[in-house]
Specification:
mainly alpha; 2 strands; about 100 residues; Four Helix Bundle (Hemerythrin (Met), subunit A); two-stranded parallel sheet
């Protein structure tokens, strides 16, 4: 499944780096959940809430919110599911710059 996203053309130069950092966070999240480091998972989720929509990626903001809440609740299974959803999203983005 492709996720179609429309991004402001003025952001074309910074979006690849932004998305690369999100992919790196996914790797970090996978290790953090193994260590059950819910505080750091919460911090990453909070950061996603603050950045996703600003770049046109509402899905990242939504999943960041879910990640933060799940970390507070120490819901390991939900966090794993969110990581998988984010991985699928980042791997299947179809970005149009307007």
């Amino acid at each position: 499944m492709n996720y179609k996203v429309i991004v402001d053309k003025d952001l074309i130069d910074i979006i690849p780096d932004y998305l690369q950092r999100r992919k790196e966070e996914l790797l970090k999240l996978k290790n953090l959940i193994l260590d059950e480091n819910f505080d750091e998972i919460k911090r990453i989720g909070h950061k996603m809430i603050g950045s996703g929509s600003g770049y046109g990626f509402d899905f990242i903001t939504e999943k960041g919110r879910e990640l933060e809440t799940s970390a507070i609740n120490k819901d390991k299974e939900k966090i794993i599911k969110i990581i998988e959803q984010l991985e699928d999203y980042l791997s299947n983005l179809d970005i149009t710059y307007e």
